[in-house]
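Changelog note: in this version the structure field was regenerated for every chain. One regenerated record is shown below for reference.
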Amino acid sequence: MGKFKSGFVTLIGRPNVGKSTLMNTLAGQKIAITSNKPQTTRNRIQAVYTCKEGQIVFLDTPGIHKAKNKLGEYMVSVAERTLKEVDIILWLVEPSTFIGAGERYIAECIGKSNIPVILVINKIDTVNKAEILKFIDIYKDIADFAEIIPVSALNGENTDDLVNTIMRYLPQGPCYYDEDTVTDQPERQIVAEMIREKMLRNLNDEVPHGIAVVIDRMRERKKGNIIDIDATIICERSTHKGIVIGKQGSMLKKIGTEARRDIESLLACHTNLKLWVKIKKDWRNSDFLIKNFGYDKRDIGL
């Protein structure tokens, strides 16, 4: 039996390449929210994978992109700072023969570190298997990769091989978390993100980026297996508020119903979820409001 290995692994990549889906698959539980819209992840989310050989602590970062406001700057800073704090970098890309400016910028970022980089070509379930070698051939020269591994985060294809490869590169180390821990995220934060995910999935493109979710109250009843949750959805504009509420409250009800299912699965009990909607104009450019809604700049040394 070899020595126990452990370490920190960051998932980086452009927005919408499947980082959160991969982390949820590897952790075996929904921790990070997913949607087909870019910039779904705003904070650094930690998931833990433990087996008899070792423990991998995954950091899912916001996608690296060109920032358009203070929240965007915060997200990019989180992603770039994480690169300096880990044992291995997993760079996720989509199966494509086109290497754009976004990928070249990430290659430049990882080129400055001497940390092993594993290139993960995700979404191989969407392409012909014969084409995968072509993608590997195109990407192999953009940076100095320790390994290149094609996977499908969605259906788990080749993810065992990815875990085994990560273990090979990790140093010997302690068990940082109990073996039954899958995340260090506070439950309130995961609940807020689950509500935000349903808005990302149900609303048109422009609205969700101007939305934050704050959990005002989360309390277990003394009698009965029920948790009462009060949450406020923050919008930037009154028109957005109307869209979030929907005709006769229909959209808000749909968001609440879908979020409640995920929250009950997470907390393993019945949930009484109440949602309110408020307007805070231009909150994404306010340092105070960004901090107020749970994005702490001290975490990233700004």
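Spot check on this record: Strands lie at 5-12, 45-50, 54-60, 88-93, 117-121, 147-150, 212-220, 226-235, 270-279. Confidence is low (pLDDT under 50) at residues 37-42, 297-302.
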